[in-house]
Structure formats: C-alpha cells, structure tokens
Amino acid sequence: MTLVLAAIGAKALYLCYIWLLSAIFASELSRSKGYGEKLGLGTGLILSAIGALIWLVIPPKDATAEWHERKPWQRRHKPRESEMAGDAQAGGSATAISTDT
Q1: Model's pTM, two decimal places?
Q2: Disulfide engineering: 47 pairs with which of 19, 51, 56, 78, CB 3.0-4.6 Å?
Q3: What is the distance between the alpha carbons of residues 29 and 66, in angstroms, rounded to a whole number?
Q4: 98 within domain boundaries
C-alpha cells in the first residue's frame, strides 16, 4: 500500500483558506463591535470557523461602537471636503482647510 501525499494536498489547501478567511472575518467583526482586531484575530485563528460564528453572537461593547452605525459588509468612507466644510459652517468640530493663497 502506497500513501499518496498529493491526494491530501488540495484538501489541506482548502482547509487553510477556510481557516484564514474565518480569522479575517472574526477580526473584522470584533473590530466593528468595539473589542479590537487582535481579540477577534486570536479567536479566529484558534477556533477557525467557530471563532467567526462566536463573534456573530457576542454583543457590541457599547452603544457608540461602529457596529450600530455600519454593518461589516457595508463599506467605510471618509467624509468629503464638502461635508467637512458644512460641519464647520454649522458649528461642528471639524475645521475647513482653505486652499486660497
């Protein structure tokens, strides 16, 4: 009986992809819930796909966490200059940068 190592190579590669993607997903979930990326990354690397599922169940750290404003699948965006200028005119804390010379 001969052991063929190439037969398990493709399965190991797919399992490695699942492991890494679950770590990325757990890291993003924990960051958006206000716990930081490292905690989610550790959970995702140690527990694999179960670690990502755990972060779906864990509640956000506080009401000001990004989780309530933006879901993980939505894209983050930087405020535009016009939004920043509008905030400055409305008395917001953002400062408008003048480009006049």
Answers
A1: 0.58
A2: 51
A3: 10
A4: no
